[in-house]
Amino acid sequence: MSGCAVLLINLGTPRSPEVGDVRRYLAEFLSDPLVLDMNPVGRALLLHGIILRTRPRKSAAAYQQIWTQEGSPLLVLSEQLRDAVAAELGTDFRVGLAMRYGEPSIAATLPQLLADSPDRLILVPLYPQYANAATGSSLTRAFEVLEAVEPPGRRPDVRTVPAFYDDPGWLAAWAEVGVDRLRAFSPDHVLFSYHGLPERQIRPLVPADSDCLRSASCCDAIGSANRACYRAQCFATSRGLVRALDLGETPSSTSFQSRLGSTPWIRPYTDEVLSDLAERGVKRLAVLCPAFVADCLETLEEIDIRLRDQWLGLGGSDLLRVPCPNAHPRFARAVADWVREQAGTG
Q: Which CATH number is 4-164+329-343 given?
C-alpha cells in the first residue's frame, strides 16, 4: 500500500453564530432531501416560506451561547480528533476532516486528500448509529464528489467504516470519559438522550411486517429485522453503556431529543421523560448524549442549558451532562483501529 487517505465526516456547523451565516447553513442543511424528506415543492415552500424566515435568528441566539474564542465547538473538537487520529495512524495515512454541511466541505477537502493518488480512501462517518439523514447523506455526497473529481481509472479503492453503535472501542471511550464523573456525582438516574428522527424515516429501513414502532419491546435486542433501525441501535448503545459505565443498581433510561414539527418522532421524548423522572422523585440526574461523538449545539445548548433549566424548574436538585468523547485518546485510538481494519493493516 503506497498510501491511504482517510476522511472523517461530521454533520456541520455555521461559519459564525451570526444570523446570516446560520441562515446559509440551515438553507444548505434543510435543502437536503434526505433531511427534509418531502416532495421538492413542499420542501421549498416550507423552507423558504416559514423556516428560513423564523428559525435562523432563534438558532443564532443558541449558537451565540456556546461559541468559543476558537470558533464552533463542533469544528474545534472535530479538528482535534482529526489530529489525534492522524497521530495514531502515522505517516502511511493522510487524514482529513469535512462537514456534510458548512465548512470545511466535502467538496473542498476530498480533492486535497486525493491529490497524492492514494491506493485506498476510507470514509469515516462520525455517527455512531445509522440514519439516512446523517450517514446516508454524508456518504452520498462523498461519492458524488469522488465521481466528479476522479475519472474511473484513477479512483482509489473506497471503504467505509460502518455504524459503531455497539463497538467496544466506542463504549470504552465513553467509559473513560464518564465513569469517574458519574461516581463523583452519584446520580439517582442516568438518562441516555439521543437525537430524534421522524418515525417515517425509520419505517423504510425495517421489514413492513416487523414490530418496529408497534411494540414496546421492539428494540430490546438487535436482530435481523431491526439491525438497520436507528432507534434499535440507540437502545443497543444504551445497553452497552450500562455495562461499560458499570452503573450497577443505578437506574437508567433512553430518550430522544431535538424533535421538530408536528409529525410523530421516535419516542420517548427527552423533555417528557424529565417530567416523569421528577414525578418519581429523582433529584440528581446525569445525562449522556451517545448519538454524538463531539459536543455541539445539541449537547452544549439544548441539554446543558435548556434541559438543565427545565430540570431545575421541575424540582430537580442537580444535573450532570457527561461530555462526549470528543478527542479523548481512547476514542482517537478506536477510530484509528476502525481505519486500520478497513485498510487491511489492523
A: 3.40.50.1400
Q: Crossing angle of helices 106-114/137-149, nearest 10°?
A: 50
Q: In angstroms, what is the C-alpha Rg of the chain?
A: 20
Q: In which region does residue 282 sit, left (phi positive, over 0), alpha (psi from -120 to 50) or beta (all else)?
A: beta
From CA 110, how far away is CA 5, in angstroms rounded? Answer: 9
Say how many C-beta atoms besides its own lie within 10 A of residue 243's C-beta: 10
- The answer to whether 322 and 244 have CB atoms below 8 angstroms apart is no
Tell me what pLDDT residue 113 has.
95
CA gap 290, 50 in Å, rounded = 31
Question: Domain spanning 168-321 has what CATH number?
Answer: 3.40.50.1400
**120 CB neighbour count, 10 Å cutoff:** 20
For residue 105 the three cell numbers come to 466541505
**Residue 118 vs residues 52, 99, 104, 143, 346: alpha-carbon distances, Å:** 41, 21, 21, 16, 18
What is the pLDDT at residue 208?
Answer: 81
List the alpha helices (DSSP H) in the chain: 19-30, 40-46, 52-66, 73-89, 106-114, 137-149, 168-185, 199-202, 230-244, 270-279, 297, 308-313, 329-343
d(CA 167, CA 338): 10
For residue 69, count CB atoms less than 10 angstroms from its CB and return exposed for 0-12, middle for 13-18, buried for 19 or more. exposed
Where are the domains positioned within the chain?
4-164+329-343, 168-321
**C-alpha cell, 336:** 484509528
Cell, residue 106 = 466535502
Q: How many CB atoms lie within 10 A of CB 46?
A: 15
State if pTM tops 0.85.
yes
**pLDDT at residue 346 in the model:** 67
**Sites in the chain below the pLDDT cut of 70:** 1-2, 346
